[in-house]
Amino acid sequence: MGTSSAIPEKSLKRRKDEDKEVMGRSKERVIKYRDAVKALFDRIDGWLTPLKKKDSVKSKRLKMSISEMCAGTYNTEQMEIRMGRRLVRIVPKGINKIGYNGRIDVSGDKEDVLFGKKEEVMLVTDDFIGWRVVVMDPQGRRDIADQLDEDVFMKLIDSVSGKPD
């Protein structure tokens, strides 16, 4: 009597059903994440409006795609903010980031490097509604602000963009 190494058909069906359920939940999270990114960029544009009217700041959105194992590949936008010769990039990184439901990296021209590693500045969300500011550096993770607002954002972009022109 031989033994079969094949996976029983019921197990395969159950696994496929579970995979579909995970993908369904991931797609819902992707939709919430893309909506949250768009809403954040709309708020940022609103915060920048007075500076744009003075011609001291320009911003633009660029299409991009993100590939994640559980969520697949999806499209979203990134934002660039130019203040004279200084540039800030705000780039979504995805929904499947350990400890967060969404992450956006914020980087600029600042040349500060600690122990050979540049600080990583991130906007993170747990609920797709509010965004927090977190910095990762060689000493570890530091929460900078519990809630991203206009004042915090203006300090953030000034901090990552380096010296004014």
Helix content: 25-40%
Order of helices and strands: HEEEEEEEEEH
Largest sheet, spatial ordering of strands: 1-2-3-4-7-8-9
Rg result: 20 Å
Shape: globular
Note the main sheet: 7 strands, antiparallel
Q: Kindly report how far apart the N and C termini lie.
A: 82 Å
Give the DSSP E fraction (strand runs of 2 or more residues).
35-45%
The overall number of domains is 1
Regions with little confidence, pLDDT below 50 for 5+ residues: 112-117
By DSSP (H or I, 4+ residues per run), the number of helices equals: 2
What's the average pLDDT?
A: 80
Q: Determine the structural class based on helices, strands and strand pairing.
A: alpha+beta
Number of strands: 9
Topology (SSEs and partners):
Layout (H helix, E strand, L loop, with lengths): L8 H45 L4 E11 L3 E12 L2 E9 L7 E7 L4 E2 L2 E2 L1 E6 L6 E6 L2 E6 L4 H12 L4
Antiparallel strand pairs: 1-2, 2-3, 3-4, 4-7, 5-6, 7-8, 8-9
Which structural traits does this protein have?
35% helix; 165 residues; two-stranded antiparallel sheet; 7-stranded antiparallel beta sheet
Account of the 3D structure:
The protein has a seven-stranded antiparallel sheet with strand order 1-2-3-4-7-8-9. Strands 5-6 form a two-stranded antiparallel sheet. It contains two helices and nine strands; from the N terminus they run αβββββββββα. The protein starts with 8 loop residues before the first helix and ends with a helix. It is an alpha+beta fold and 165 residues long. It has one domain (9-161). Residues 112-117 have low confidence and may be disordered. The longest helix has 45 residues, at 9-53.
